Amino acid sequence: xxxxxxxxxxxxxxxxxxxxxxxxxxxxxxxxxxxxxxxxxxxxxxxxxxxxxxxxxxxxxxxxxxxxxxxxxxxxxxxxxxxxxxxxxxxxxxxxxxxxxxxxxxxxxxxxxxxxxxxxxxxxxxxxxxxxxxxxxxxxxxxxxxxxxxxxxxxxxxxxxxxxxxxxxxxxxxxxxxxxxxxxxxxxxxx
Length: 191
Known about the structure:
- The chain is an alpha/beta fold and 191 residues long.
- Helices cover 30% and strands 12% of the residues.
- The chain has a 5-stranded parallel beta sheet, sandwiched between helices.
- The radius of gyration is 18 Å and the shape is globular.
- The N and C termini lie far apart (55 Å).
- The relative contact order is 0.16.
């Protein structure tokens, strides 16, 4: 993590990450390696590309999204498991291989990137099982898929460490962060 690219918002930062992933693969002559995987329920922004990686149907339907090269996999929502199946093995089987489930269906030479929030915020603070990062990371490395950690929601000390990637030992290839600075101008009403 030795380089910084400044953008205007989290949405634009994620768009830039997608463009960098595509540029990287084009530079290596892998012109068919363009698909980006996000999680169902994940939020990465509202621009065309970041909105496509976002896994929320309400953000897609009115805007003809997602783009054709965007795919989605399961989110690590433990509550989504059926009652009685919350033991450790069921959690691992249901969510530990999210990327691994989608990737073979798409073809190893076509998947370029995976976006994930260390802790998902849009679905209601979804904390992943500790095993998910290790299993996903092995799959991503095996197929040379770049991992983007979207730290817009859980970065800057919200999980105890400066970033969620540290808390969960994620080792991403790119990190997107953003913090808007808003100023309110307040005036007293004149009497």
